[in-house]
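can u pls check wat happens w/ iron/sulfur cluster
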Amino acid sequence: MNDKKKNSLPGLRDAIAEMTLPQSLAYLADLFPGEVTLSTSFSWEDQVLSHYALDAGLEIEIFTLDTGRLFPETYIVWSKTNERYQTKIKAYYPDQGGVEKYANDKGPNAFYHSISDRKGCCFIRKVEPLRRALKDKSIWITGLRAEHSPERQDLPLLEWDEGNSIIKYNPLLHVTTQELKKIVDDHSIPYNPLHDEGFVSIGCAPCTRAIQPGEDFRAGRWWWEENIKKECGLHSR
Ligand code: SF4
């Protein structure tokens, strides 16, 4: 099954090469009925993708990882999205036992203590729930953009995610922030107001801050760590 999915990559790349974003989403939804999923953190990127999928009524499951540490604003935009599109974004939650053990052994904010404790928290609250969300799916649509970090500059639009045994589609890879904002404005798409306060990438509240003009996009995440490859494990390659 995995080989079959993996081997379909070159054909898919050719097929969507000349398509617009809405066309490519519709094409994949038709080709893999019930097996296309879109992860959302309710960022600008994910809201644009959700808009195209929901507005066209595509058979694409949209899910979010509710880590339990999200900003109040994120829950508001989540509710607004459900209302606007008459949908229910599916939520995956961390394993209760894992969260309890982590908090009881290490403390509720142990992610500030070391990179391994931070990654441990990300594993429990994000990576493990993500694995459940992607199980039995063939295509995972993400809002990754090249502007977000140097590591993402050379990402392909379609790639094989070995860890999750799934084809990953990054359709916004080369879309700029200005272009993204224009789509949001043109379609009056609900978005997280934290973006207007300098938050570029919005994750968990204790681990995300606004950035100053000119600062690297990833400076807003896990800022107490050395500015090396900052990833939470969701998009490891
Ligand atoms: Fe935990 Fe922070 Fe990772 Fe969220 S971003 S899962 S709070 S370490």
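The CA atoms of residues 209 and 220 lie 5 Å apart.
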